[in-house]
Structures are given as C-alpha cells and as structure tokens.
Amino acid sequence: MTAFLYRWLPRLFYCHCRPERSFFWRGRQFPLCARCTGQLAGLLLGIPLFALGRFPLPVCVLLLLPMITDGTVQLLTRYESTNLRRLVTGTLFGLGLYELAAWAAVRAVSWGYGLGRYWRLALLN
Fold first, then answer.
1. Dihedral angle of Cα 64, 77, 16, 44, to the nearest 10 degrees
2. d(CA 66, CA 1)
3. Distance CA 46, CA 111 (A)
4. Which uninterrupted H or E stretch holds 97?
5. How far apart are CA 35 and CA 9, in angstroms?
6. Sign (positive/negative) of CA torsion 26, 28, 34, 37?
7. DSSP string, 20-49
8. Which of 18, 19, 101, 114, CA to CA, is 20 to 30 A from 31?
9. What is the DSSP letter of 54?
10. Nearest of 111, 108, 123, 74 to residue 83 by alpha carbon
C-alpha cells in the first residue's frame, strides 16, 4: 500500500515532491509536499464537514484564496513560505475545493431531478 501511495499520490496531485518543501516522518519523506499534503487533508476533512452542513458558496471561494495568494507571492517575489504555512493554506484550499465540487454535484443532481420531473409531467399531460 505504501508503494502505491508513493507512486500515485504525486501523480494525482501533480506534486513536485521537493525535499525542502516536504515533511519527513521517521526519516522518510512524505509522498507529497507540504502544500499538497494540506490539500489532501482538506479534501478528506471536507467529507464529514459536508455531511454535517454546507458552507455558503462565497465562503468556499474565500477558502481558495490563501493558497493562491501564498503561492503567487512566492512565485513572483523572493518570499519563501514555510512548510507549516503551506500545510495550512493547502488544507483550506482542499476544503474549499471539496465543498465547491460537492456543492456543484448536489446542484447538478437537483437540477437534473427537477428537469426529469418537468418532462415526465409534460409527457403525461
């Protein structure tokens, strides 16, 4: 299982896996960098949180902004983010991304259900 995760997680997240931007546990590097580890944590955290209640759409979008800002500033300036900051902003991004995807899926199913009811009633009349 470990070999599977180390092989496929970086591909799934398109992660660079740079050692200086990754966490280590007992001398072994995580399969993802700190930011991608946060994204995975946020995606996994989104599952039970979505079951408990949904975030408003603007909140979902706002959760994406810290990582986008941190990554953009780091790319365009000499600023170097810390692994803890990357983890936190990645977690917020993953949570916001999951909530947006789940929100879109719920809306699509609801829209399709309504459309199906409309056509069924139209065909019966």
1. -20
2. 32
3. 23
4. helix 83-124
5. 13
6. negative
7. GGEEEETTEEEEEEHHHHHHHHHHHHHHHH
8. 101
9. P
10. 74
Amino acid letter, 105 = A
Closest C-alpha to 21, from 80, 89, 92, 88: 80
Distance separating alpha carbons of residues 42 and 91, to the nearest angstrom: 4
Q: How far apart are CA 87 and CA 82, in angstroms?
A: 9
**pTM for this model (two decimals):** 0.82
- Which pair of tokens denotes residue 59? 């909140």
Q: Which amino acid type is present at position 2?
A: T
- Are the beta carbons of 23 and 37 closer than 8 angstroms? yes
- Convert the pLDDT of each residue in 74-107 to its tens digit: 999 999 999 999 999 999 999 999 999 999 998 8
